[in-house]
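User: Just a sanity check before I run the rest of the batch. Below are the structure tokens for the first item. I only need the designed sequence back.
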């Protein structure tokens, strides 16, 4: 068997965040869904053992996002996506990642509006 590609994900993580450029958005937190897909180095993927020390813990992903959205106000979803990518790539085992954000309550006739970014080492 070849070495498997190891993909982790966090799906539809809902946060409430002060984000937006319009006057009516500033100071009015909005619901945002965040999705993260990460490819990690197979050497630290759990194939070496069934121990948390051998994987990228989901708590790092979720807690890191919480830390970002609680630490500042964002004008743009693009900036939020870029900051999440930078946080993920602070870990050397992250080889590639895709991050998307979706504001849920912008238009009554749209489910959401958003941004998606990806990066690779």
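Assistant: Here's the designed sequence for the first item:
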């Amino acid at each position: 068997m070849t070495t498997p590609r190891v993909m982790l994900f966090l799906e539809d993580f809902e946060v409430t965040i002060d984000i937006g450029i319009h006057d009516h958005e500033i100071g009015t937190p909005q619901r945002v869904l965040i999705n993260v897909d990460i490819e990690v180095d197979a050497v630290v993927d759990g194939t070496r053992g069934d121990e948390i020390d051998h994987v990228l813990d989901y708590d790092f992903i979720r807690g890191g996002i919480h830390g970002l959205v609680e630490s500042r106000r964002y004008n743009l979803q693009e900036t939020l996506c870029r900051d999440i990518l930078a946080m993920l790539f602070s870990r050397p085992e992250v080889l590639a990642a895709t991050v998307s954000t979706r504001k849920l309550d912008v238009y009554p006739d749209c489910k959401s509006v958003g941004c998606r970014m990806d990066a690779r080492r």
